Amino acid sequence: MYAKDLSASSSFGRSILSFRRDQAMDTGAGGEQQDALMLGFQSCVEYVLVDLSAAAAADGDGLLSIAWIRRLLHAFLLCHEEFRALLLDRGADIARPPVDRLLAEYYDRAIKALDICNAVRDGIEQIRRWRAHLEIAVAALRPAGSGGGISEGQVRRARKALTDLAVLMLEDRDAGSTAISHRNRSFGRSSGSGSSYASSPKTTGRQVSKFRSLSWSVSRSWSAARQLQAIGSNLAAPRGHEVVATAGLAVPVYTASAVLLFTMWCVVAAIPCQDRGLQVHFTVPRTFPWASAVTSLHERIVEESKKRDRKSSAGLLKEIRQIERCTQQLTELMQAIKFPMAEGEEKELSHRADELAQICDALTEGLEPLERQVREIFLRIVRSRTESLNSPARAAN
C-alpha cells in the first residue's frame, strides 16, 4: 500500500519540479524567473510537509512508523532536488558575499548530517539483529508443516529467543545512551573478513556483523544529541535586510537548513542511535507557508517522546513499540503456561505468534528500502557539496 503512495508522491514531486521550471521559463528571464524558482521551492516544501502532517493525522498510530519515515525521507529528497536546481540557476550569485557565507553554513550543517546518516544506518542494522531473534521465536511457535499442537520444547525455544532479545535490546540501549557504543560504518561495501564493530564493556564477547570501515565513521564519543544541536546552532530566519542583501536567497537557504534539521531530528527520534536526544531548539516564523505543518509535527513527536519517557537509544519507531509490547505479552503468557496446555492457551499463544510474525514481515519489507533512502540522502549531500566546490562561479573567484 505504501509503495503505491510513494510512487504517487514521486510522480507528484516530479510534477512540482517540472511545473515550476516551466512556469519560470514562461515568465521570462531575470527577476521574474528567479522569483518563480524561489516560490516554487517554498511551494514544494509546503506541499511535502503538509502531506506528512496529513498522513500522520490520518493514521494516528502511524507517526514515526517505517512507512512514515520513508515518506519523510522521500520528502527531503524532493526538497533537496528543488533547492539544488535553484542554486544551479543562481550560479552567478551564490559565490558572492553574503550568500557565500550562508551557503557555507548550510553545507557545514549538511556535512554534519552525514554522521547521522551513518548512525541511522547502524541503528537499522541493530533492528535487524532484533528481528533475527523474533524470527527464531516465530519459527519455534509456528513450525512449517506441523499438524500437531505446540509442544513444551517449542515454547522453551521461543522463550529463550525472546529472553536473548530482551537482553540484547537492553545492552544496545545502555551502550547507546552512554555514547560509548561501537563505531558506525560508513556507506561502503561490507567485508566478511573485516574488523567487527568495537564492543562496549557491557557487550564484550558478543559477536556482531563485520564490515570494512571506509570514511565518515563516528567515534565512540560521538553523540547524536550533540550533532543535532550542532546542525541547529545559530539557525535563525533571515531578517529583512538579509533578504535584500542576498537578493532573496537567504530565504531558501534558511528553508533548506530547517528541512535538513527537521529530517535529521525525526530519524534520530525514531531509529536507535548512539546517545540519542531530542533537545533541539526548533522554531519557524509563521510567515513561512510551511511553518504550521512542521511545528505541528515537531510538537507531536516531542509529546510522544515525553509520553514514553525514553532516555535510551531504543528510538520511538512504531515497530519498536510493537516489538516491546508483543514480546512482553508473549513472554508473560509463556511463563504462565503449564503443560499440557488448555485449548484456550494454545489459541492465545498462536495468536500472539501471528502478531509477532506480522512485525517480522513489516521489518523485512521496510528496513531495506529505508536503508536505501538513507544511503541516497548521504550520496545526494556529498554530490551537492562537490558540485558547489566545483562550480564555475566559485572557480572564477
UniProtKB/TrEMBL annotation:
The protein's location, in the record's own words, is: Membrane
Where do Low complexity bias regions lie? 187-200
The UniProt family comment states: Belongs to the ROH1 family.
Query: Which Pfam families does the record associate with it?
Result: ROH1-like
Primary place of residence? membrane
Answer whether the UniProt record assigns the keyword Oxidoreductase to this protein.
Answer: no
| InterPro entries, per database record | ROH1-like
Name of protein: Uncharacterized protein
Q: How does it sit in the membrane?
A: Single-pass membrane protein
| Originating species | Zingiber officinale (Ginger)
Taxonomic classification, please?
A: Eukaryota, Viridiplantae, Streptophyta, Embryophyta, Tracheophyta
Note whether Transmembrane occurs among the keywords: yes
